[in-house]
């Protein structure tokens, strides 16, 4: 019953949009441009249009994969990738702030958001407004509506039903002599 109440209050908050800090009254976010008008392409009754999971994966790699993992254990899989942000595995339907982040100085996070289609679309468009200015990302946002739609379609595939992601192979040892010994034992 308490979970239903939480989901209901989060859904109401999403319909109202991100709250503005009364102390700054929007000036911190660019005045009127930083207000709810930033999310005018995602209405209250938003339904995710058709999109491409394959294109979404490509755009995810371009815009998100540098700082976000797609695995449950938040593992790194490519050169140049960092673990600054939380894993986006099972992001769809998750409440904000639940996953561990590697950046321990990054205490300011998005609060009181249930990551569904509209919230994901709005966050990708303008993360600073959605996070009320408290986000430590070098990411200005994605203005193109269809790119965000494709990414959301891809994010919806990052769940426990995806066997490849849900059960990744064991991580290799990071210490080179141990890796060499493991390779010798497997021969």
Automatic annotation (TrEMBL):
It is found in: Mitochondrion intermembrane space. PROSITE patterns: CYTC. Its main location: mitochondrion. It comes from the Eukaryota. GO terms for molecular function: electron transfer activity; heme binding; metal ion binding. One of its GO terms (cellular component) is mitochondrial intermembrane space. The keyword Heme applies. Pfam families: Cytochrom_C. Keywords: Electron transport, Heme, Iron, Metal-binding, Transport. Residues 51-159 form the Cytochrome c domain. InterPro entries: Cyt_c-like_dom, Cyt_c-like_dom_sf, Cyt_c_1A/1B. Belongs to the cytochrome c family. This is Cytochrome c domain-containing protein. The lineage of its organism: Eukaryota, Sar, Alveolata, Dinophyceae, Suessiales.
